[in-house]
Write a structure and sequence with these properties.
The complex is a heterodimer of chains A (140) and B (369).
Chain A lengths: L14 H22 L9 H16 L2 H24 L9 H4 L6 H18 L7 H4 L5
Helix pairs in contact in A: 1-2, 1-3, 2-3
Chain B lengths: L8 H8 L8 E13 L6 E3 L21 E16 L2 H13 L1 E6 L2 E7 H4 E9 L5 E4 L6 E9 L5 E6 L2 H6 L4 E13 L13 E13 L6 E5 L20 E13 L7 H8 L3 E6 L2 E7 L4 E7 L15 E5 L3 E9 L5 E7 L9 E13 L2
The chains are: A mainly alpha (140), B mainly beta (369).
């Protein structure tokens, strides 16, 4: 009787798997923006659009792992805000590493410093800056 | 993930301008208009508070119903009487420099703009003793908002125009038509719409304005946004900004009115054009130049200036020059920064007496309280 081989539980770095998951994540995150340039994608459909794009990419690359990872990533993106709302941990703006570099602070001034850091980061973020071509016609 | 990044009002507006398959709203390019009549002694006028009644005067009473959402993209107001005399042009200047419009939605100020931003008016020049020849030039001004104001269903709303008491006396019975132009969404299904939830920051279109009195024609420097004791209709805020605000300066205008004793309007422009505007932020000079490109003058003159009651004669010459400089690179003023805004005038300046108003227009980012 052939012996059934037990699946190893040891961690084994698999570069192809990492690349496949990476490709799936890129497809899920970038595809909705690209599709939006041609056809408006409602907010509730962006996860689905990303999953669909990742699935197609995996299909054309003949990589089932990419397809599965795309579905899992889209599902996580859909579920995370709900969980954050339940736990009350969603700040709305990602905290960057600069706030962690401030050292140990009291809870009160950590909040004040963090808000200041985030305000400047928010206004300096290129996606939030309005260019001359965008605002010039408001003043003509 | 894109759908989790908080959107500002402009992004939400752009999203709803174009129909898509699963939309459950009807979109309309729609104006709200209301007409008020200036009454002697009344300085505050509350808009969109009366029942519609006469459709030629107004088409909306606020607040919105539970099935409507409105984005305010543009504000304008038209004063329905001409300004023919020096005395009337003087009161027009008071409306432009010393009146302001305040928009409060859900108990938070969303806009506070001076009259010079949105008032349209009709200066009239009359030639000949019998008034045979006249020139009428309707000047239209609209305040377009780079960041629209969102009025959600059932939002509490207050739109108030405050004018000086002296202007209300002279301009008694003058009708003024206010228009709010924007996008209306009618909900086709009953749903609660709150796309601004979890936003930490909010962007609003602002005009920081300050009006200073011209003391004399000597060489001197006027400092703006420093005096914390001024009335609200003369100054919108005092610099520096608080720690929860930043400001992106996109356009600037310097407005000079006619002096108490009117003079040839072109002499005012010629003299003021040499004034120097300086903006220094945290000891860095961001702007230093004359104001030829951003100087506005509204003034009238009659050659019988010394005759008693001359200010009631039809003006023979007037200047209505309005301009502003739009920065190709917005001037960013951070929170808590040291800011100096000064206007230097040379010796022998005209017109002496009168007021100078500086308007800084742009977008303010503030924390959502």
């Amino acid at each position: 009787m052939a012996r059934r081989r037990r699946r190893s539980s040891k961690f084994k770095l698999s570069v192809p798997s990492i690349m496949d998951v990476g490709i799936a994540n890129i497809a899920v995150r970038v595809a909705p923006d690209l599709i939006n340039r041609f056809v408006p994608v409602p907010a509730g459909m962006q996860s689905i659009a990303g999953a669909g794009a990742g699935f197609l990419v995996g299909h054309f690359l003949k990589k089932p792992l990419v397809q599965n990872a795309a579905i899992a990533t889209a599902a996580v993106d859909f579920v995370v805000p709900i969980i954050e709302d339940m736990l009350g941990t969603n700040s709305g703006v990602p905290i960057t590493n600069t706030t962690k570099m401030m050292g140990v602070k009291t809870a009160q001034n950590m909040n004040a410093m963090a808000d200041f850091q985030r305000l400047e980061e928010y206004t300096n973020d290129p996606s939030q800056r309005m260019g001359y071509n965008q605002y010039m016609h408001f003043y003509n | 993930m894109i759908q989790n990044r908080p959107m500002n009002v402009k992004e939400i507006l752009n999203k709803h301008l174009y129909p898509s398959v699963m939309d459950n709203v009807r979109r309309k390019d729609y104006p709200y208009y209301d007409t008020i009549t200036i009454a002697s002694g009344t300085t505050d006028y509350y808009l969109f508070t009366q029942d519609v009644g006469n459709g030629f005067l107004r088409n909306k009473k606020l607040p919105l119903t539970g099935s409507e959402v409105f984005f305010i993209e543009e504000i304008t107001a038209y004063i329905k009487e001409p300004f023919k005399t020096e005395a009337l042009l003087d009161k027009l200047n008071e409306l432009l420099q010393q009146s302001y419009l305040e928009v409060i939605v859900n108990n938070r100020v969303q806009a506070k703009i001076p009259g010079m931003d949105f008032l349209s008016y009709l200066p009239t020049q009359t030639l000949g003793t019998g008034g045979q020849n006249s020139t009428q030039e309707l000047f239209v001004r609209r305040r377009k908002l780079p960041e629209p104001i969102l009025m959600n269903s059932n939002s509490s709303f207050e739109l108030k125009w405050t004018i000086p008491s002296t202007a209300s006396v002279t301009l008694d019975t003058y009708p003024v038509i206010f228009n709010l132009n924007g996008l209306q969404l009618d909900k086709l299904q009953d749903f609660y719409w709150n796309e601004l939830k979890r936003n930490m920051f909010q962007k609003i279109a602002v005009t920081y304005y300050d009006t200073v009195t011209i003391a004399n024609g000597n060489e001197s420097v006027y400092n703006f946004f420093q005096d914390g004791t001024k009335a609200k209709n003369l100054q919108s805020l005092v610099l520096p900004l608080s720690d929860i605000q930043t400001f992106s300066l996109q356009a600037v205008e310097v407005f000079v009115n006619q002096p108490d004793v009117p003079i040839e309007p072109y002499t005012i422009f010629q003299s003021r054009s040499q004034n120097v505007l300086r903006i220094v932020v945290d000891d860095v000079v961001y702007y230093d130049g004359n104001i030829v490109d951003l100087l506005s003058v509204v003034a009238g003159y009659t050659s019988n200036a010394t005759t008693a009651g001359a200010d009631t004669f039809p003006v023979e010459r007037y200047m209505n020059k309005r301009q502003q400089k739009v920065f190709r690179i917005p001037l960013e003023i951070p929170a808590n920064s040291k800011v100096q805004v000064t206007l230097a005038q040379q010796s022998g300046s005209v017109g002496i007496t009168g007021e100078i108003t500086l308007a800084l227009r742009g977008v303010e980012t503030r924390r959502v309280a």
